[in-house]
Design goal:
It contains three helices and eleven strands. It has a domain of 139 residues: Sandwich (Immunoglobulin-like). Strands 1, 2, 3, 4, 8 and 9 form a six-stranded antiparallel beta sheet that branches. Strands 5, 6, 7, 10 and 11 form a five-stranded antiparallel beta sheet that branches. With 201 residues, the chain is an alpha+beta fold.
Length: 201
């Protein structure tokens, strides 16, 4: 009788040992994969920048902004009967901020500057004829490669170039003006840039 119970006890212990030796399965929460998701540790900063950059030949390589260089200024007239000359240096910037050549039509307007006002741009004083840069010859004529910009010299004392006033206008270096440059792109977009021409002491 004691031997019978001993065999049963032995079988019971063996079954317990067999259950303990089996590897326990740990239930893990389901993993949800997102389309296009990449672990941060597997992506270098260079690769990440390359993925966000616009593809070659895309819209980013067209002009998106007008820049007016600080070289822009009014020069003193050489003759008392002539008006001051306005030298304007314009650059076109692509989506990456690089200066570039591009076809287009440029329009130059000069406005009165109103100090201590929420709207500093006052009445328009001068409107010059549009400059067409769509032909290679005209584009190269005004392009200054060492500056990566276009240079224009505008007369401020010709009655034919100041029809916005209905008469001649003489710009003075003792006053402050706002120069507005508009670029009309071949695809119909208009880019606008403004520059404050401060009075010279």
């Amino acid at each position: 009788m004691n031997l019978r119970f001993t065999i049963y006890d032995l079988l019971f212990c063996l079954s317990l040992l067999a259950g303990c030796s089996q590897p326990q399965v740990t239930k893990r929460p389901p993993v949800i994969e997102q389309a296009g998701a990449v672990e941060p540790s597997t992506v270098s900063p260079v690769e990440d920048t390359a993925k966000t950059a616009a593809p070659a030949g895309g819209p980013a390589f067209t002009p998106v902004k007008i820049g007016i260089l600080p070289l822009t200024e009014l020069s003193s007239p050489s003759d008392a009967n002539q008006g001051a000359k306005l030298s304007v240096f314009v650059t076109l910037l692509d989506g990456f901020g690089s200066q570039m050549k591009a076809p287009g039509v440029l329009r130059f307007e000069l406005y009165e500057y109103i100090p201590r006002s929420a709207q500093s741009k006052g009445p328009r004083l001068t409107l010059w004829p549009d400059v067409d840069l769509t032909s290679p010859a005209q584009n190269n004529k005004y392009w200054r490669d060492f500056l990566r910009a276009y240079e224009f010299v505008l007369d401020t004392g010709s009655p034919t170039q100041n029809s916005a006033l209905g008469g001649p206008f003489q710009a003075s270096r003792d006053k402050t003006y706002i120069l507005e440059v508009t670029c009309m792109c071949p695809d119909g977009r208009r880019l606008l840039g403004e520059y404050v021409l401060k009075n010279s002491p």
